[in-house]
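call fold(seq) -> tokens
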Amino acid sequence: MNMLTTPQRSQLFNKVPEVTLSFWIIKIMSTTVGETGADFLAVNAGLGQGITRAVMGALLVVALLIQLRTRRYTPWIYWYTVVLVSVVGTLITDLLTDGLGVSLYISTAAFALLLGFIFLIWYWEEHSLSIHQIVTHSRELFYWSAILCTFALGTAAGDLATEAIGLGFVWGTILFGTLIATTYAIWRFGGNAVLTFWISYILTRPFGAALGDMLTQAKTYGGLGMGAMWTSALFLSVIIILVVFAQCSANSDQQAQLSK
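ret:
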């Protein structure tokens, strides 16, 4: 879903990718990797929740520092950061639910309110929530704060629908897929581009999480039994291939601009 606004000249080039089909494919797969990757590291690899949170949190901080220091959108840096945000967002929700016993109803509502607060302050300060205008450091900080919150919110909402309410992985995937398709239809028929983008961005998280659970969980629990390792490896491979193509395209565009 493309935004309708165009960034004005600033100290930075726009730091986020164009919203294309490839964008949404990578986004959904990164959310699935966040769900399956967190489970694989904590359970299958035997690291445990504490070590996994510490390692992934440290990697995310480093990735964000690298992302913030760049002056233009660099595909591999951006999507590496998104994958780590996905993993950390999952771990945050798991910590609240499994570690601290916070109800999924409460955590979902709390993350929704927090995201609304971030958007309110962002719009108050910058007068736009469009991702085509991430051309200053302050906007980029707002952007990544919102992104992290959407992943935590999406994880909580997905677990709420599939586990607490009892829809299961298959029906959860169908539900959130239908909501995404409905949001896309609203945008196609003239709905606000910024609003529909952020709604879709939030919904792709529980969709990817439900899809990941459906693929990885044992058949006795309603899944397909692929396992976290193989699902993570498969989806991560597709992400890498798409990001490599995006990076090559970005490098070609930059060389073309320099040659003018």
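Confidence is low (pLDDT under 50) at residues 2-10.
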